[in-house]
TrEMBL record:
Domain of life: Bacteria
Similarity field: Belongs to the methyltransferase superfamily. RlmKL family.
Protein name in the entry: Ribosomal RNA large subunit methyltransferase K/L
Matches recorded under Pfam families: Methyltrans_SAM, RlmL_1st, THUMP, UPF0020
Enzyme class: transferase
InterPro entries: 23SrRNA_methyltr_KL, RlmKL-like_Mtase, RlmL_1st, SAM-dep_methyl-trfase, SAM-dependent_MTases_sf, THUMP_dom
Gene Ontology CC: cytoplasm
CDD domains: AdoMet_MTases, THUMP_AdoMetMT
Function: Specifically methylates the guanine in position 2445 (m2G2445) and the guanine in position 2069 (m7G2069) of 23S rRNA.
Name of the encoding gene: rlmL
UniProt domain THUMP: residue ranges: 48-159
UniProtKB keywords: Cytoplasm, Methyltransferase, RNA-binding, rRNA processing, S-adenosyl-L-methionine, Transferase
Length: 713
């Protein structure tokens, strides 16, 4: 390949950056630029390819095309590889590496594909010279690229070596560093090169380890991103043009020296002092510290600096996204603070934010004039751009009336429940239960923590709106209850079927205890759909505790054994707890132990399908508690359970185990439940739902509850 000979080159880039890369290569090379399935292709000279390797801020890898084929087969791949004169690219004594991607019927593993390509190359060289190159996966003289994709075969030489996003300046990083070429894409999308030439300033108020600051400073200083790399893949390639490369390096160094003298101010700030030190070390290593600097300051404390002469320009940040639902409420104030700073201190600036969450972006309070989809690693994100001007400032959102109404209801409920909670000495109770239609939440207090369940919104409510209300509600709740958001567990409540009711939700293993009428119970707000304690059954647990002395107690569908613990605390002669879940039975044993009891002959815990156990048991009990799920189709059950359909079976079989003077407490949370008339005829039935629903659940009827006894003989 001569200096003036043209060839095709393929260039890869991060997902979402393709259009920007086409513009960049066209600007760098004056070459003909087109689309390639993994990025961009252009036709130009080897010097053009070198220029892309040295100056592209967006590319990952550059390949010199050796050939391609529309015939996609094992034989076609062998023919394509064998058609190349490898003596033109690699010495017989040299080293090589093959990167293979894709699949063929005969090649289902990329390592096998790489091995076959390598074999065909070295076989050709050995036949000609009697010796063959060796494989060096770490530092080869030549890296061969072979790919099967889009019904075509591609074969080329990789010119870059390591991906071009590795500039060579990276020091220690923060917990979630943004890749260098994604940072550059954001800056190019914001027209930062032109802004820097006009002398505008740059800010990143959440800079982390400083990738955006560093990339902005390099662009402002006309600093070629490839100058910091120690080696490129083409430097030991036989067709490498040393003179062309040296010329480009010399030109880049001259531009860097001139650019350093004229670059505008570039500043970064972050609450983590450790990453700030790393960011400044990077800027010093690059020789950019005179006009680019990072400071240890949180977003909450930030004010416009007076020791730098700033010209309104560009503020870009990559704030936390909150990938988990429970993390997002913490970030609401962060995004609101972004909007406050922009409105109050940065009039005339351009604002750019990269986030994966549209709800959080809305909290900034500005209408974006442009949005661009980008991928930060595997996370799909959106880059929002805003103008900060008087019109935007005037349109800043006022306090949301619905959020204020929700806040006021929380204050009212807390005040109304305070005396009752203190009198009953409760640590766990319901504070709010969908009191306001716009905020369909159930909010429960557990000591110094909160459990928030969002009922699935109607289909007429857009998902983003429902999410926004949830986050705003949690933010208000944190204020009213004076608790950090980290103490608020947030879940979406949907109907659970089968084994899902036993599956872990968010494995944190953070359990703690609450007390209820002197009984200590373990709860977990994060790991499962429920917390381990059904608060709406509090009244009946108290009744069991008050009436259990000397009795034989059976707790069916026992869950975590709260009724068992109350019965033990009330002096029960014996307890038997039955459940399908080993996890919850172990939890029930813990609850018994917390109150001084121990599993044994008088306190049995039985792992079984309750329907089957009821059919087979011959024991007798004085007090039976049965609270079955509305529906279950667990694979561990012999049959499915539907409480409306099967309640007669459950009651009849439980009554067979009940002593003549005993009582069955039967409850369930199916709102449409009705007890079959035959059961009223067969037994002495009393509907005690009104007594069983505690004060904090009177807004709705969360369950139905019956006391069932044998009729007098």
């Amino acid at each position: 390949m001569t200096a003036n000979q043209t060839t095709r080159f393929w260039v890869t880039c991060p997902q979402g950056v393709h259009g920007l890369l086409k513009q960049e290569i066209a600007t760098l090379t004056d070459a003909s630029v087109g689309d390639w399935h993994k990025g961009v292709e252009f036709t130009g000279s080897l010097k053009d390819a070198y220029r892309v390797c040295l100056w592209s801020r967006l590319a990952n890898r550059v390949y010199a095309a050796l050939g391609e084929s529309h015939e996609v087969s094992f034989d076609a791949l062998q023919a394509l590889v064998s058609s190349v004169n490898w003596d033109e690219h690699l010495r017989p004594s040299g080293t090589l590496k093959v990167v293979f991607t894709g699949r063929l019927p005969e090649i289902r593993d990329t390592r096998f594909g790489a091995q076959k390509v390598k074999d065909w190359v070295v076989d050709q060289i050995r036949e000609r010279h009697g010796v063959r190159p060796n494989v060096d996966p770490q530092n080869p003289d030549l890296t061969i690229f072979a790919q099967v994709a889009r019904k075509k075969l591609f074969l080329g030489i990789e010119l870059t070596g390591e991906s071009l996003h590795r500039r060579g300046y990276r020091q220690a990083t923060g917990p979630a560093p943004i890749k260098e070429n994604l940072a550059a894409a954001i800056l190019l999308a914001s027209d930062w090169p032109a802004r820097a030439k006009r002398g505008e300033s740059f800010l990143d108020l959440m800079c982390g380890s400083g990738t955006l600051v560093t990339e902005a400073a390099m662009i402002a200083a006309d600093y070629a991103p490839g100058l910091g790399r120690t080696q490129f893949g083409f430097e030991r390639w036989l067709q490498h043009s040393v003179n062309d490369w040296r010329e480009l390096l010399g030109e880049a160094r001259e531009r860097r020296e001139a650019g350093r003298e004229t670059m505008p101010v570039v500043l970064g700030y972050d609450a983590d002092g450790g990453v700030i030190a790393s960011a400044n070390a990077t800027l010093e290593k690059l020789g950019l510290e005179k006009q680019a600097r990072c400071y240890h300051r949180s977003l909450a404390e930030w004010t416009l600096p007076t020791h730098w002469a700033l010209t309104p320009g560009l503020w870009v940040s990559n704030p936390p996204y909150g990938e988990r639902l429970g993390d997002k409420p913490t970030l609401l104030r962060t995004y609101r603070r972004i909007g406050e700073i922009a409105r109050e201190q940065l009039n005339g600036w351009e604002l750019g934010m990269l986030t994966s969450d549209d709800i959080l972006a809305r909290e900034i309070g500005f209408k974006p004039h442009d949005k661009r989809r980008l991928f930060n690693g595997p996370i799909e994100t959106t880059y929002y751009q805003f103008h900060v001007d008087e019109a935007q400032k005037a349109s800043a959102p006022a306090n949301n009336e619905q959020v204020e109404a929700f806040r006021n209801r929380l204050l009212k409920n807390r005040k109304q429940l305070k005396k009752w909670v203190n009198r009953e000495n409760l640590e766990a109770y319901r504070l709010y239960d969908a009191d306001i239609p716009e905020f369909a939440l159930a909010i429960d207090v557990y000591g110094q923590a909160l459990h928030v369940q969002e009922y699935a919104p109607p289909k007429t409510v857009p998902e983003h709106k429902a999410q926004q209300r949830l986050l705003q509600a949690v933010d208000a709740l944190s204020d009213v209850m004076e608790l950090p958001v980290s103490k608020i567990a947030v879940k979406r409540r949907e109907r659970q079927k089968g084994t899902r009711q036993y599956e872990k939700n968010d494995a944190r293993n953070e359990s703690f205890t609450v007390t209820e009428y002197g009984v200590t119970l373990k709860v977990n707000l994060h790991d499962y759909l429920d917390t381990g304690l059904f608060l709406d059954h509090r009244n009946m647990r108290k009744k069991v505790q008050e009436t259990a002395r000397g009795k034989r107690v059976l707790n069916l569908f026992c869950y975590t054994g709260a009724f068992t613990a109350h019965a033990y605390a009330g002096g029960a002669a014996s307890t038997t707890s039955v459940d399908l879940s080993k996890t919850y039975l172990a939890w029930a044993k813990d609850n018994l132990q917390l109150n001084g009891g121990k599993a044994g002959p008088n306190h049995r815990f039985i792992h079984s399908d309750c329907l089957q156990w009821l059919s087979e048991s011959k024991d007798t009990f004085d007090l039976i508690i049965m609270d079955p799920p509305t529906f279950s189709n667990s694979a561990r059950m012999k049959d499915t359970l539907d409480v409306q359909r099967d309640h007669e079976f459950l009651v009849d079989h439980a009554m067979k185990l009940l002593s003549p003077d005993g009582v069955l407490i039967f409850s369930n949370n199916y709102r449409k439940f009705y007890l079959d008339d035959r059961l009223y005829e067969a037994y002495a039935v009393q509907d005690v739902t009104g007594q069983s629903v505690p004060k904090d659940f009177t807004r709705s009827r969360p369950h139905r509850c019956f006391e069932i006894r044998h009729k007098p003989a």
